Amino acid sequence: MTVQPPLRIGPVRRFTRNLLCPVDLLDRPLLLKYTRDPAEAREEIRGHARLARHYRVPALYAHLRVPGGHLLAYERLPGGTDQGLLLDLLNADEPSGDLHTCMDQLTAVYREVILATAWPTDPAHVVRKLYWERAAPGGRLDTYYAGKDFLVADNLIDVPVSRLDTYTLSVNGRRHQLDWAATLRWLRAHFATAEPVWTALTQGDPTDVNLAHPLAWFDYDTAGTNSIPGEFANFLWYASALGGWLVPRYNPSAFADHQATFAHVPANTPEIRRADVDHSTSTIHIDYTSRLSAPRRAAVTAYWNQLVQPVADRLWPGETLANLLRPYLAMRILGVYNLADLAPEDRLVLFARLAEAMSPTFDPTTYFCPLESPCPAP
User: Fold this and answer.
1) How far is CA 250 from the centre of its chain?
2) Res. 36: pLDDT tops 90
3) What is the maximum span of the chain, computed from C-alpha positions, in angstroms?
């Protein structure tokens, strides 16, 4: 008979500033999370407690201070290499029955909880990490962009972002104006107002690595009273751009246990077909083709049709979702990665996407491609 050791420790994985490690203690599967930031640890503990009242979350068995930070011991849900996350259902050539079931369950839970807890809230009492803090003085917008200038796309569009307002952007044949400095000022001003925000109790950062399959929610430092449009923009942008394209490219270590992700990056990476400048007419031409794999397209479609639209019909009847989503979407484009640090091709596409989002003609139903058929090339 083989005797199992009382303590077995798995590989340590780094996610942003935190470390995760699977541990088996006396045959009990645990997931240990180490965070250096005591404020973030406190938010995580509070967020977990609030979320547990409405959503399925792993049990939090213990939390304690350790040298240099905090250690939290969670119940470890079943999972493994390329399994256990919504991400793994998206890493396929075609949407599966499990994906459709997962999205049905996900949207049903969110719809019920959001509508039951929705309320206009003073922004001072909203979870501020992903939007308000990043737009505030000294936040990411300042850290990334304040007092800095860089090219739209080195060797492709050698125009400084500070001069974008002097050009017309022709994106896939549609004309747009993008004033870089004015966009940053507008975002800072938007997230500095005291106007009440429609909020609900959510996890706040609903990415495909923070959602388990079977359905559960991970990562709680942004859990609590969150902006509803911010929640929507976060999922839609992550599912349609970050998760399948940018995060695997710029943070590959996040997928150490989900290597199938990388095989599907080409299916989710936009293709640039034209990038040039006509100085005689002050026009920047950017033609690109959106790409979104069939599983990601199915997930976005289900999320939009089964959650965003029904909630919007109840909370904002007759209002355009474009205006509600725009500031949050722009912050996701600008406040996750510093555009200046990205490869010129990726930066160029993001500038095109930002111009489309800031346009008066912005239509989220086509922007995120919530269609069962592939997005047509212009």
Assistant:
1) 14
2) no
3) 82
